[in-house]
């Protein structure tokens, strides 16, 4: 019996909606960046993207803003390729 292949796309609309809700931040600048990000990329998010976004959203507003504005670079647990990819897309928004 063949094993089902895993889809890279995060197909669960409820999980994406929860993520979008969590992305609402106290800083307007963060809100604007995430709003543009979701408008552009929400339908294409993979499970890895959702995991990376979840990790980024655990940061304080100021820490997140510093990363988004490239005032700081990801370090430690944040320095992985999945977070780097999502952060690059966030920065392009």
Structural account:
The chain is mainly α and 93 residues long. It has 5 helices and no strands. The protein starts with 12 loop residues before the first helix and ends with a helix.
Shape: globular
Total number of beta strands: 0
Helix and strand succession? HHHHH
The biggest sheet, with number of strands, parallel, antiparallel or mixed sense and barrel status, is: none
Multimeric state: single chain
Structural class: mainly alpha
The amount of helix comes to 55-70%
Low-confidence stretches: 1-7
Task: Kindly provide the radius of gyration, computed on alpha-carbon positions and rounded to a whole number of angstroms.
Answer: 14 Å
Separation of the first and last Cα atoms: 44 Å
* Mean pLDDT metric: 84
Strand content: under 5%
Number of helices: 5
Short description:
The model is unreliable at 1-7 (pLDDT under 50). It is built from five helices and no strands. With 93 residues, the protein is an all-alpha fold.
